[in-house]
């Protein structure tokens, strides 16, 4: 297939195994105008006849963030996914989902594959080194951070305590020719509203160095400032120049109220401030002196980048609809905050000494729990409750995978693990304080009451299946967590009557699980009355439902390790044993493999745990990032990227192994052994 006109043909295509995806389907009620230049949804999938694809591998993207918006940059130097002003806003660059849906590239003319890419150590600043036939070029990309700028008025978005630093809403891109001569090109082609709209370019002044793309109000206008001269060519703003050794240039794209840099010195200063911000932040953490320290730090930086700082929300991933199965339908929008992640996030952040981020995320959880409304499993980054799901039929999808979903219909599912997640989060938050704040008691009591009311009913479980509700064992487990942590907190709050009442119900749920949730081998099963295994049962020892030396715990962990794996990596469940309402296979879930590492440590299988952890770390992307899944046969990353849940599980697994090596395993989520 010939690459689309709107993004110039790369000199090298990316090899990605797997069958071609199905022809995309139109979505009723939505604008179905084909994006100019891409294969229409009635034509062939975006894959060449020789099996190659113009899409970069998911793992080859770099992640940038200013903690209010984020971007993914392909190896070619093109920003191929970016949503502003929030991570769940409509995208302005969407080439990751359709090669004709807009991108913003800086790089040498005629060369698309760089020599090297890295993050500057301790930062989210990307450095790309290019070699051409005539010279060498270094490009640095960052989403600028600067001093707090809401000085005379209060912010309309910030609910958390202001910090010394704030997002400047500027993407800064600097270029330096370090040897020889290089022809540089810049192409910026925004396509607002998930490529359903077109931007209108205008010059801002009498010269060529300042232009603005009017996005029609769906997205904010985009201002480009540069030391280069822009030409407007239809939907594109373009610049080109020949650089010789020592030459420098910059391009800055802004979408907020702050002015973009107007000189190389200003751009270099913005880059330096951003570098200092990230290094000052990572220095606040506590990281062990261990060969795996770099993975912990990169995971921490990624989690910080996936945080929406105005509210403290932590989004599950930066993207929507990157497929869990190549060419398949398991494509979801993960740009929202899941309550389930709260316990994992708080444990990981507190463990690494990043208390401020943990406290801010807990404050977000507190905000959404404060009203008397029924608790949802997920929310928008501003606490929005309605996340209606719809499909974008005009986009071809990553390697043809359809549908492209925006929103997530699971927001109104009933999932009974949510109360346990909240109660465990409250417990984690209050343990170090040795008292329960007065404002948390009504929230605690309400969530315990909800768990008590619903624990015996079926739900859709931790994996949000779209089949019929079932009596999932992990959901019962989390209801037990709600009652158990509620009883502990009630004692802390000096409410012995509630503590006794809730502990009694916790014991009842405990007995029910041990009666109905085990098979004849003494292995915990996915749901009552069925023999299927489920990786969520690795949480049994991690949440201290049973002590790790209990034979049922050991049997469960080893059964999952031996029977629910594909080439040694863990599946969530077998799709032929679970009614999840979908078709097709899925890859191994990396979070589940990291859970297995932690669980193996718990049952004393340290050598096996270390070996699996080393293998999982070897699957990290070239920039030490993780998507949701890994194909164990190829090492290919699948699903949304980068994935917060995976990085949280990595932190827990690595710390489990390190502490076990030091003889100091002290419990998952900081929970004491019982």
UniProtKB/TrEMBL annotation:
Q: What is its EC number?
A: 3.2.1.28
Q: Which GO terms describe its biological process?
A: trehalose catabolic process
Any Pfam family the entry gives: Glyco_hydro_15
Tell me which PANTHER family the record gives.
TREHALASE
Residues of the region (Disordered) are 1-51
What family, per the record? Belongs to the glycosyl hydrolase 15 family.
Q: Which cofactors are named for this entry?
A: phosphate
* Record lineage: Bacteria, Bacillati, Actinomycetota, Actinomycetes, Micrococcales
Q: Where is the Trehalase-like N-terminal domain?
A: 57-131
The source's superkingdom equals Bacteria
Query: Which UniProt key words apply to this protein?
Result: Carbohydrate metabolism, Glycosidase, Hydrolase
**Protein name per Swiss-Prot or TrEMBL:** Trehalase
MF-aspect GO terms? alpha,alpha-trehalase activity
Q: Which SUPFAM superfamilies match?
A: Six-hairpin glycosidases
What is the catalytic activity of this protein?
alpha,alpha-trehalose + H2O = alpha-D-glucose + beta-D-glucose
Pathway noted in the entry: Glycan degradation; trehalose degradation; D-glucose from alpha,alpha-trehalose: step 1/1
- Indicate the segments forming the GH15-like domain, all copies: 293-654
């Amino acid at each position: 297939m010939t690459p689309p006109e709107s993004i110039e043909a790369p000199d090298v295509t990316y090899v990605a195994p797997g069958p071609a995806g199905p022809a995309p389907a139109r979505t009723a009620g939505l604008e179905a105008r084909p994006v100019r230049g891409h294969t229409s949804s009635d034509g062939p999938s975006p894959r060449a006849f020789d099996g190659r694809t113009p899409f970069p591998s998911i793992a080859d993207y770099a992640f940038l963030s200013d903690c209010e918006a984020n971007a993914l940059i392909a190896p070619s130097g093109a920003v191929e996914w970016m949503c502003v002003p929030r991570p769940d806003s409509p995208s302005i660059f969407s080439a990751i989902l359709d090669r004709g849906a807009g991108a913003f590239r800086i790089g040498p003319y005629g060369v698309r594959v760089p020599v090297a890419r890295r993050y500057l150590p301790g930062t989210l600043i990307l450095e790309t080194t290019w070699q051409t036939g005539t010279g060498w070029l270094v490009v640095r990309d960052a989403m600028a951070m600067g001093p707090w700028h809401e000085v005379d008025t209060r912010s309309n978005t910030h609910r958390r305590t202001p910090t010394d630093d704030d997002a400047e809403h500027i993407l800064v891109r600097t270029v330096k020719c370090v040897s020889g001569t290089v022809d540089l090109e810049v192409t910026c082609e925004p396509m607002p509203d998930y490529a359903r709209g077109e931007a209108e370019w205008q010059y801002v002044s009498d010269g060529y160095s300042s232009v603005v793309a009017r996005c029609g109000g769906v997205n904010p206008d985009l201002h480009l400032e540069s030391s280069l001269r822009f030409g407007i060519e239809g939907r594109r703003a373009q610049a080109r120049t020949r650089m010789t050794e020592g030459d420098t240039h910059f391009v800055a794209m802004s979408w907020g109220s702050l002015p973009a840099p107007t000189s190389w010195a200003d751009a270099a200063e913005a880059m330096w401030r951003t570098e200092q911000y990230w290094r000052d932040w990572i220095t606040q953490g506590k990281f062990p002196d261990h060969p795996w320290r770099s993975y912990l730090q990169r995971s921490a930086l990624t989690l910080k980048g996936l945080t929406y700082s105005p509210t403290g929300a932590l989004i599950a991933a930066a993207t929507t609809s990157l497929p869990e199965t190549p060419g398949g339908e398991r494509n979801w929008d993960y740009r929202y905050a899941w309550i389930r992640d709260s316990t994992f996030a708080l444990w990981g952040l507190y463990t690494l000494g990043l208390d401020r981020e943990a406290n801010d995320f807990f404050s977000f959880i507190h905000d959404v729990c404060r009203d008397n409304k029924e608790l949802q499993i997920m929310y928008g980054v501003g606490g929005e409750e309605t996340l209606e799901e719809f499909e974008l039929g005009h986009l071809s999808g990553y390697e043809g995978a359809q549908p492209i979903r925006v929103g997530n219909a699971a927001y109104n599912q009933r999932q009974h693990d949510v109360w346990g997640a909240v109660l465990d989060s409250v417990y984690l938050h209050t343990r170090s304080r040795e008292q329960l704040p007065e404002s948390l008691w009504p929230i605690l009591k309400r969530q315990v009451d909800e768990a008590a009311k619903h624990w015996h009913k079926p739900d859709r479980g931790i994996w949000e299946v779209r089949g019929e509700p079932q009596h999932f064992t992990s959901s019962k487990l989390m209801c037990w967590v709600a009652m158990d942590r509620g009883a502990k907190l009630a004692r802390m709050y000096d409410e012995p009557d509630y503590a006794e009442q809730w502990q009694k119900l916790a014991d009842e749920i405990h007995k029910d699980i041990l009666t109905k949730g085990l098979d004849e081998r003494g292995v915990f099963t996915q749901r009552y009355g069925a023999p299927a295994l489920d990786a969520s049962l690795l949480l049994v020892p991690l949440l201290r439902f049973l002590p790790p030396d209990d034979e049922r715990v050991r049997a469960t962990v080893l059964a999952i390790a031996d029977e629910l794996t594909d080439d040694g990596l863990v599946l969530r469940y077998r799709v032929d044993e679970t009614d999840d309402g979908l078709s097709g296979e899925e890859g191994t879930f990396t979070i589940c493999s990291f859970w297995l590492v932690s669980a193996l440590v718990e049952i004393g299988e340290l050598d096996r745990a270390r070996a699996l952890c080393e293998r999982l770390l070897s699957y990290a992307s070239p920039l030490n990032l993780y998507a949701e899944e890994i194909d164990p046969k190829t090492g290919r990353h699948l699903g949304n990227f980068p994935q917060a849940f995976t990085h949280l599980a990595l932190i827990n697994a690595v710390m489990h192994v390190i502490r076990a090596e030091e003889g100091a395993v002290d419990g998952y989520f900081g929970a004491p052994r019982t």
